[in-house]
Amino acid sequence: MADGCGPLDQRRALLSAAQGLNACGLNQGTAGNLSLRIPGGLLITPSSLPYEQMGPEDLVAIDPQGRPLADSATTTGRAPSSEWRLHADILARRPEIAAVVHCHSVHATALACHGRGIPPFHYMVVQAGGPDIRCAGYATFGSQELSDLAVAALRERRACLLAHHGQVTLGSSLEQALALAVEVETLAQMYLQALQLGEPPLLSGEEMEEVAEQMQRRHYGAFSDPAAPPGQSPDLPR
Ligand code: 13P
């Protein structure tokens, strides 16, 4: 899957990522939404249309205020995802980010229903940019309040959970954002499993910082992404 250069390539890449999300079990039905930065705004999945029924022409090109962008490939007049504000606000505040993935993956959402994020119980948490993955507070889907809460939870991070809702991941490409969504779901499943025996011991700030440095040195996973935060993240506790 490549991000492509032209409008149609970008549409095909976004559609393939959206369908891939369902195919790998991270999402279902019409839940979730994905976006890709394009000149003048973003390309986003339409609202309330099952991914398997979606064609490239159903994707919606909008400006950062949610207004339709003139785009010859938009032919179906679909409404953009109800979460367009969240996508547009993230892309506006994070110039290093090109793609945003939101899904209702089961284990991440189960944790988020308890308002819990993912602490440094496992070293791979660093893949999301710091020693933890925060859970943003609850707000109604599609609201400006939800977007504001998510943007705050994503400070110095490329992933967060949304209380009673799901998860959001960011990447400098669709591939990176999708890979991180899989990682977040896997970590959430591991954490829920570890919690069966009680709250697991956590890695220290120093240990997590060493992991970040090691990953950065090795260009490991998300750290091969130019959008990945530096190993010496100011958020890493010392
Ligand atoms: P849309 O179909 O409008 O994208 O909504 C799905 C969703 O997950 C809302 O958070």
Brief account:
With 238 residues, the protein is α+β, with helices and mostly antiparallel strands. It has 6 helices and 7 strands. It has a single domain, classed as L-fuculose-1-phosphate Aldolase.
Describe the structure.
This protein is an alpha+beta fold and 238 residues long. It has a single domain, classed as L-fuculose-1-phosphate Aldolase (3-Layer(aba) Sandwich), CATH 3.40.225.10. Helix content is 33%, strand content 13%. The chain is built from 6 helices and 7 strands. Strands 3-2-1-4-7-6-5 form a 7-stranded mixed beta sheet, with helices on both faces. Helix 2 packs parallel to helix 4 (144-153). The longest helix has 21 residues, at 174-194. The relative contact order is 0.14. It binds 1,3-dihydroxyacetonephosphate. Residues 30-33, 45, 47-48, 81-83, 141 line the site of 1,3-dihydroxyacetonephosphate.
